[in-house]
Write a structure and sequence with these properties.
Blueprint: H1 2-48, E1 54-58, E2 67-73, E3 79-89, E4 94-101, E5 108-115, H2 129-132, E6 145-147, E7 157-159, H3 165-186
Parallel strand pairs: 6-7
Antiparallel strand pairs: 1-2, 2-3, 3-4, 4-5
């Protein structure tokens, strides 16, 4: 017992040293992390709204919407669509995604998951373009449903990822939560 007490100072000192190193790394890299997150967001906006050359953040007057809305413009300043940066709970942790909407606000033109820690090989397939491509041309005025079977034509459905139905539902829940709160506000910003 006395040997444990005599040597416990080493564990305490090592804990303090490593905690200080981690805090220093976090502090020194925080600007780079923010830069990388902003770059990933801008790349996602350009990907989900075809023709976007620049985007402008707009303020939505809806306290229930958690995220940002971007007005997407071409090189001539013409509106080419809208991008919603939104997040919500996933199976493991937070999922952050960007949804592209056409200029009229009627249809989804793209979807990209930019942050997730879902189960590798299963739930993280929510970021695969083959799966997110199912959202293209879905109606923004109707609820999107997740089915285990292939979607019916015109039914506003997506097929769940096999083995990751919950992750599929969480992505759809984020989209379904954001669209009704944002769509009415878009007309104010055309």
């Amino acid at each position: 017992m006395s040997k444990f007490i005599n040597e416990s100072w080493l564990v305490l000192v090592m804990g303090i040293v490593f905690a200080t190193m981690l805090a220093g790394a976090q502090q020194s890299l925080s600007d780079r992390i923010k830069e990388n997150q902003l770059r990933a967001l801008n790349e996602a906006i350009a990907e989900v709204v075809p023709g976007t050359i620049r985007s402008e953040s707009i303020e939505i007057e809806n306290e229930d919407f958690k995220g940002n809305v971007y007005k997407c413009l071409d090189d001539g300043g013409k509106l080419v669509g809208w991008a919603l940066d939104s997040s919500g709970g996933g199976f493991v942790d937070k999922i952050r995604l960007v949804v592209g909407i056409d200029p009229a606000g009627e249809n989804i033109v793209g979807l990209k998951v930019i942050e997730n820690v879902e189960t590798p090989g299963l739930g993280n397939k929510i970021q695969d373009p083959e799966w997110t491509g199912q959202y293209i041309d879905l109606d923004t005025s109707r609820e999107i449903k997740v089915e285990k079977r292939p979607p019916n034509e015109g039914a506003n459905e997506v097929q769940a990822i096999t083995g990751a139905t919950w992750s599929s539902r969480y992505v759809t829940d984020i989209v379904n939560a954001a669209l009704p709160k944002v769509r009415p506000e878009l007309d104010k910003h055309r």
